[in-house]
């Protein structure tokens, strides 16, 4: 049996190249190929991490999408957002219709909105999807991907990121060649956004909750084609070999091991444009707490220059620079394996994580640590609103739960943090219930092993 991992961008690096998936496949005598568009340095890191593992290496080329399928894809992208927003009674879903910058793109979006508005239900959208696939089969990209797949000759093609359009064409070519295809739903917020430009034989999801979402938003997909496996990104937290002593972690990062650590995980400037203001407010509120150190982890795909004045002002805020290689574009950034250990130890040794709606609350929940979301406006006239952020569909996962703590004003920062440190059982009481709702948990097996077992079972 031969499995090919299609990694079209940096999204799949940590979960699939750095996890146990490839070693476990090879232990089961499965041949592995990696079809990717990654920096060659990434592949060297994967080889360094598992020197005993061998896999075939193929370059995944990107092609400019033909105008008609691209336009139709935009049309149904807008249509899905409108249908999903109406279905959920949640207008923020339409916030995912991102504007294009140049004149040609703006004109295209204008007409995509007009035509997309005529596709008023999911059945009509599915029919247009079929037309797109028909058009894609005429493209040079489709022909090239068929040739590549004939050369790779896998039994199963696993795509690690379901949103990439070129990968969708490659998956179509694989299906037409009789190759079993498997698509990974990468993140807990993806499905309401309607970004699934591919169809596969099977779909891997994090949880029963995500399975229900997939069936709701894509009714052409059948329940029996969905497999609940969790996600490899949380497997690392159960790897005891990654956990360092508190003193060792402190020495490596210039921290005081005798102080209580709280983590502030930064967002990119689009997701949270006022992030430096929130970090400054935290510095102001905690500067007289002699037993606290703030560990600031910037978002890996941006620099942290916009925070520099705050960091200069409050020396007790320590920056833990992510161990990532920078790229020319965000999808060319990639983590070094050492960054995984930093994340694991940060969640293990810190008492609480603060941020604006970040998945890091789920990371900390792996060690039963509370997450706290900042939730107050600092620039009411700005087009970005933090109140609107928390109306996004994926935050409805904890609508009935005390899943995270909330800081609703600067005046609440100190008391909320002290509660999280001193009496963590009194804040975010349902954090484990929320975690288990979003991410399937099984103490007997890892997500990586469940994925491998499923892939092997597909050949029987």
Automatic annotation (TrEMBL):
Protein origin, superkingdom: Bacteria
Query: What is the name attached to this protein's record?
Result: Diacylglycerol glucosyltransferase N-terminal domain-containing protein
- Organism, by scientific name, is Algoriphagus aquimarinus
High-level lineage: Bacteria, Pseudomonadati, Bacteroidota, Cytophagia, Cytophagales
């Amino acid at each position: 049996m031969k499995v090919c991992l299609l990694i079209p961008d940096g999204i799949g690096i940590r979960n699939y190249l750095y996890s146990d998936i490839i070693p476990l496949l090879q232990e089961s005598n499965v041949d592995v190929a990696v079809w990717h568009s990654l920096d060659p340095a990434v592949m060297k890191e994967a080889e360094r991490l598992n020197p005993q593992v061998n896999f075939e290496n193929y370059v995944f080329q990107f092609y400019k999408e033909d105008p008609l399928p691209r336009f139709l894809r935009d049309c149904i992208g807008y249509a899905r957002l409108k249908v999903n927003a109406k279905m959920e009674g949640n207008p923020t879903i339409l916030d995912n219709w991102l504007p294009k910058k140049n004149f040609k793109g703006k004109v295209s979006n204008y007409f995509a909105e007009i035509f997309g508005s005529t596709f008023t239900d999911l059945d009509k959208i599915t029919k247009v999807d079929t037309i797109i696939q028909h058009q894609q089969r005429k493209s040079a990209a489709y022909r090239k991907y068929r040739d590549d797949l004939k050369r790779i000759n896998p039994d199963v093609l696993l795509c690690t990121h379901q949103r990439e359009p070129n990968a969708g064409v490659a998956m179509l070519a694989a299906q037409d060649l009789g190759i079993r295809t498997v698509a990974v739903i990468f993140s807990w917020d993806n499905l309401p956004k309607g970004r699934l430009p591919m169809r596969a034989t099977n779909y891997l999801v994090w949880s029963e909750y995500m399975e229900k979402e997939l069936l709701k938003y894509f009714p052409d997909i059948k329940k029996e084609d969905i497999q609940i496996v969790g996600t490899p990104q949380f497997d690392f937290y159960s790897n005891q070999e990654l956990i360092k002593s508190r003193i060792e972690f402190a020495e490596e990062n210039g921290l005081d091991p005798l102080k209580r650590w709280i983590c502030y995980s930064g967002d990119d400037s689009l997701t949270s444009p006022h992030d430096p203001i929130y970090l400054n407010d935290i510095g102001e509120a905690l500067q007289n707490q002699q037993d606290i150190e703030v560990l600031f982890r910037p978002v890996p795909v941006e620099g942290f220059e916009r925070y520099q004045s705050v960091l200069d002002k409050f020396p007790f805020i320590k920056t833990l620079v992510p161990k990532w290689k920078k790229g020319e574009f965000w999808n060319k950034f990639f983590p070094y394996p050492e960054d995984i250990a930093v994340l694991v130890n940060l969640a293990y040794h810190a008492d609480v994580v603060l941020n604006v709606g970040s998945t890091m609350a789920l990371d900390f929940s792996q060690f039963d640590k509370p997450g706290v979301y900042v939730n107050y406006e600092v620039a009411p006239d700005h087009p970005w609103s933090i109140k609107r952020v928390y109306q996004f569909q994926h935050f409805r996962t904890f609508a009935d739960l005390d899943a995270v703590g909330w800081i609703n004003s600067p005046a609440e920062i100190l008391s909320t943090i002290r509660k999280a440190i001193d009496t963590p059982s009194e804040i975010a009481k349902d954090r484990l219930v929320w975690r288990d709702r979003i991410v399937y948990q099984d103490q007997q097996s890892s997500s990586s092993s469940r994925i491998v077992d499923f892939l092997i079972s597909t050949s029987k």
